[in-house]
Amino acid sequence: MIPEVTGNDTRPTRGATAGDDAITDDTQVEAGHNGRPTGSRPGGTRRWWLAVPLLLLVAGGIYLYGARAKSLAAKQAQKKPATMPVVAVPAGKKDVGVYLTGLGNVTALNTVTVKSRVDGQLMAVHFREGQDVRRGQLLAVIDPRPFQVQLTQAEGQMARDREQLNNARLDLQRYKQLWQQDSGSRQQYDTQEALVRQLEGSLKVDQGQIDSARLQLVYSRITAPVAGRVGLRQVDPGNIVHASDTNGLVVITQVQPITVVFPLPEDNLPKLLAKVKTGARLTVDAYDREQRQQLASGLLQTLDNQIDPTTGTVKLKAVFPNTDNQLFPNQFVNVRLLLETRRNAIVVPAAAIQRGSQGTFVYVVKADRTVTVRPVVVGVHQADIVSVDSGLAGGEMVVVEGAERLREGSKVELRNPAGTKGQQGTPDPGGRNRKGANQPSVPAAAGPGGRQ
To answer: Contact at 8 Å (CB) between 199 and 165?
Structure first.
C-alpha cells in the first residue's frame, strides 16, 4: 500500500494498486486546494475547433450560389421584359363645352303674402295646402254681411239726396223766371243756385260711399294675386282676421317660371360680357348637390350691375321654365353656364391622364404592343372625359388601366375591362363595351355643348 501525503499528514489510500502508478495520455490529475482531482479531455476540444472552418466554408458556398442564381435571373428578366396587362381605348373626337360653374340659390319669380284687406270673420277657405292656383282664383271668404248693410245704407242716402237735388233744381228754375220778370230778388236766386250745387256734392259723396261698400264686398272675397303654389295655411276658418295682421292667410310663390341666382368670379367677367354683348343666348344647367343629375335647363337673363368687393364675384340670374317642378324656392343647386363649344375636340377618359414632375402625359400603345410616354396639354374637363388640346391624335390608343406599372418601352397585352364579353387583347374602337366601374367610356358622338 502506497501512502498519499497531503500536507504533513500521511494516510493510506484505499483500493490503491500498483497499476495506478501508470498515467495515461487521456487523463491528467491535478491536486486542488482541497485535495480533490479534476479531470479534462484536451483531445476532444481540439476536434471541435477543427469542425468550425468546415461549416464556414459550406455556408459561404451556399451564399455564393444563391447570389449567382439571383444575378442570372435578373439578367434573364432584363433580356426578356415582362408583358403587362393593360386596358386601352382610342382617343375620340367630340364637341366639348366650356362651362363656368357656381353654386346657385333658387328664388321664386314672385312671392306674395296673401292678407285680408278688411276686418271680419273668416268664413271659408277654398284652397288646399301645396296646391297650384291660377291668378284670380278664390282663396277665402270673409263674412260679407256687414259690408252689404253699409252698401244698403249708402244707396238709401244717395236716393234721398238725389230727390232733394231734383227739387232744388225745380225751385232754381222758378226763382230764375221770377228774377227775369222782376218778381223776385237776385239774392234768393243765388241762394237757390248754391243749394243745388251743394246737393250735387252730397250726391257725389253718396256715390263714393256706395263704391266703398261695394269694394269692401269685393275685398271680402280673397283671390290669388299671382299664379303659383300656396304654402301652409296660417289662419283657420272661424277666426277674426284684420287688415293689420302680419302673417297673412297664406304665402304664394310663383315657381313656373323660376329663377336661380349664382355668383361667378370676376376673372370670368370679360369673356362673359363679350358673349352677352353679341346677343348670344347662353344656356344654363342646374344640377343636384352631387353634380350627377341635371334638374333643369334655362337661359341666362341678366348680370348684376356691380361686383361684390368682399368675395370678388358678380351675381347672375338665370330663368328656368320649371315645367316639371324640379326646382324649389330656396334650394341650392350647382350651376353650369355654357360659355362656348369646341367642335371635334380630341377627348380621352380622365383615367388616361397621368401626372408627373414633367407635367401631364399619357401612355400611347404603339403597333408593336409597346408603350411610349406622350406629353399632352389638357383642356376642358367634362364629366369623366378630358379634352386634349395638343400632343395626341384621334384614334391613338391610350392606356386607362394598369398605367402605374408601365415605363417607356414596356411590353403590354391589351385586355378588356371587367364586365365586358369581348375577346381578350382586342380593343373596342368605339368604346361601346367599356362600362366597368373603374373605366368611363368615350362617347362616339355628341350634340352641341357636349350634351348627348
So the answer is: yes
